[in-house]
Every structure is written in structure tokens, then in C-alpha cells.
Fold this protein.
Amino acid sequence: MARGDVLLVSLPPSDRREQSGRRPAVAVQTDQAGEPMLIVAPVTSNLAALRFSFTVRVEPSPENGLTLPSIIMVFQMRAIDKVRIIRRIGRVRTRTWNASTRKSGEC
């Protein structure tokens, strides 16, 4: 896995404010061999999430594997165990990735 990969993941249950369940997420770091964890930013198709700071809108494309307009929730970045990764579904465009990493640097 590499930075910018769109992954289908299974996030653990959490309170009402954190994303959970099976959903796309964007890899924020490149996979390090031997490391059990990976930092990801969850993705939602709820466009109302744009009201939050540190979000990036992504349109669906064959390249990213998303099927609906979606929001990368940079403000909800977290480390997950790699066993939670179901599969890679695509990759965000460089322009989108650059926008999300600028947002993460502002956190």
C-alpha cells in the first residue's frame, strides 16, 4: 500500500462522532514492511461532512474506485491494524492527494 491508495477497511465500533464499520479510507502513509499499523483518513458519502474543517471532496472515478461523491475526513485520521484492510479499491489523483495532505498539515 502507498500514500493515496483508497482502501476498503473495517473500522472498529466507536462513539457516534467517529466513523466506524466497513467503508473506504485513504492511506495517509506508505506501508512500512513489518509495521502492524497504517494511518488512514476515513471517507464518507455524506456530503454534509463538508461543513467540518479538514475535509476534501472527491468525485467518483474508475481510478479511485469510489461509486458516489465522497468526502475524505482528514480530521479523523487514525492508525488502524492492517488486518482491518479488506482490499485496495483505487487511488486518489495527485491533485486530490495534495489537497488532503495540505489539510493534514494544518491539523
In short: The longest strand covers residues 37-44. Helices lie at 94-106.
